[in-house]
Amino acid sequence: AQKITQTQPGMFVQEKEAVTLDCTYDTSDPSYGLFWYKQPSSGEMIFLIYQGSYDQQNATEGRYSLNFQKARKSANLVISASQLGDSAMYFCAMREGRQAGTALIFGKGTTLSVSS
Amino acid sequence: NAGVTQTPKFRVLKTGQSMTLLCAQDMNHEYMYWYRQDPGMGLRLIHYSVGEGTTAKGEVPDGYNVSRLKKQNFLLGLESAAPSQTSVYFCASSYLDKNYEQYFGPGTRLTVT
Could you report the per-residue pLDDT of A12-28, keeping only the tens digit for each? Predict the structure, then answer.
């Protein structure tokens, strides 16, 4: 079974609109972390936002927020007021367990296209 | 602060040739990782290291070897390249931090013909 599922291969949004990118995860470990990364066409991986499994509040970083629904095992990324520069591939990832050295498990990604 | 750097950025190999990819980080991170990214597959972990002199296998380790002789460097070796190893390779590192955020290098695009 996939640990991280991103069901939207591609999403299209107009500038200034909000968009939600879906991510569901599967783990039996009570301690885990959820991450979102952005990969523009230039190829680098850019960290956007992090949510810990014990965090009480949804994480926010500027225009990015993470809609964390623990019971549903979902960690959707919300981008408010989309900009043309937001066009990129977005990856959801999970770290299981408490050890800092644990590697990330990535989803297959969602391509976001922002139009003017 | 250069962050995480990777050498080379691009490489074309013939089947059976060998090469080493170098990853260097200047953030004094304990943990380093090698991932590969294939179309439609996301990133998959090849090998990782939790400290100088230690390495461990990830999800797709076959055909690769690694070494971490110095804390700041993590080398990925292909002894006998195969076309199935055509991919983009990313190195990442992380600090002992509550978020365990991983910092990624710019990637190496490898083609094996």
Answer: 999 999 999 999 999 99
